[in-house]
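SAMPLE LOG
Freezer: B-3
Tube label: C17
Construct: single chain, 217 aa
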Amino acid sequence: MKKIRIFLVEDNRVLREGIATLLNGQPDMRVVGAIGSGNNVLNTIRKVKPDIKILDLGLWSERHRMVMEALKRDFPEVKVIGMGLVPSQADVIESIEAGAAGFIMKDATVKDFLGTIRSVYQGIKVLPPLLTGSLFSHVIEHTLNNGKGKLANAVRMTKREREVIAIIADGHSNKEIAQQLNIATHTVKSHVHNIMEKLALHSRLQIATYSRDKELE
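STRUCTURE (predicted):
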């Protein structure tokens, strides 16, 4: 039986060794490399030739994004899976744009954990369970399937919604937004509700953070 060759990047040594032991105990899996950081990832992957790379999203940084993009370019056959406790939407967006094919929750059951690896290996895209069924997940799936454009741009905002987002980012209340835009307060509330629905966010703070992170035009 051909085994799935797995490369693991996890900074917690106990967790890293535990995951490696679990995976090596499967008849169809083999851990060919396990390191605690993203240093020398490309060189190591060139040597061990994995099918799957599992990356702890807690280590996510601009450097890791560059590594993943280089991995996608130089080793397109290697599928990347992000792993985290509760991956933020920003992490999901950036890692998908950089080339990730799936996600594993650190509190997932063993069955789900192994199932995610096998599914990604077979070419199936796997989203975090907490996002499944949300509008945000449909946007992600559309981008994964079509591979066109930036994920953030796949969420279509009206001009007014973008104006509301920008003013929320400046720390203003609904009443202040209504005054600035010369619209009713209940209309502002409706816009805020629609924005949260489109972006699968749950608070004004998250909207402000999204605006700063993505610099919506």
